Amino acid sequence: KLVTVSFRAHAAGNGATRSARGCEKSIVERERTGDNWGKRLMETEIVIGWQERAPFLSGPMQLVSDLGPSTAFNVFLAGLFWCWSGRRMARVWVVNFVTMYFTSALKLVCHAPRPYWIHEDIRGLTRASGFGMPSGHAWVSAAVWGELARQFALRSVFILAVLIILGVGVSRVYLGVHSAAQVGVGLALGLLVIGLGPTLEARCRPWFEQLSFPKQLGAVFVACWGACLLVMGIRWGLSSYQIPPEWIAMALEKRPQDGPIHPLSLHSPIMSAAGLNGFMVGYLCLERWQKYRDAVSWRQRGWRLLLGGGLLGPYVYATRRFLKGELAVSLPFFAALALDYAYGFTIGLLVSLGIPLLFHRFRI
Question: At what angle do helices 180-209 and 86-110 cross, to 10 degrees?
Fold first, then answer.
């Protein structure tokens, strides 16, 4: 009887084990075939698959990613402002700063992780410290390259813009810093900006142009300072929010050279609002003083690129190094915000006023 009971208990145990394994297997299969699998595919599986199957694309994807928001991208836009059409490129610069601001603010609202922060099999192949939703590169690329295509009004530029927008989105997924869903939301918002931009300009521009020059400057300052207060309010609303330590640990493990992540930093939105402020102040002064004209010859464009790029590039590099230094990092909260604002303001002012005045001075 004892042997019989023992055998039956053993058989029951094996049956329970098989049942548990079968249940676990069915859950996994259900995840792969049901709704959960679709979410997993959008969030992680696409990234893992691309990184495992094409590791040789890391360098090219980084270059494609830099066709979106980056220092090189902003220098490129500055070159177009100096060498093509100041009035048309002013619209592109406004779109650039506004979308960079709103993407940074919306990241704080969503505070969603990047894929390589939460999945051990995903590598982070480029520096990224802010939150993941939505993709700022996808949003800004779609809006700015779309506006460039509108301003040039050439089929070749339109095709190039579409290829760059799609390429930037794909590169961000491959580099492990965004999921496909985050990129998709960014692209959708960029297309929304392209569609609503002309309507908003048609409604706001007549009101703005009928203001006197001092009131125009005042309106710009009020709008940009209001944007800073708005994002500071969002950050204050997240004062009780704690970044999961698992995100910080995994991000640091994947990219120790970048140091700990700081996704709650206000550096990016404050600098974007300040950049818009500086650019608009400079552009309004340039239009009022009438001391600047668009380049008309290739020789003139070449000299402008040489002088403007030679001044703007080293300035941006030196100031960014300073902002990452120990002195800037150790500043109190509001002092650091003021430093970020001054940095963004001077860059916008240099692009739209400081360097163009040098062109006028040297007659190029």
Answer: 130
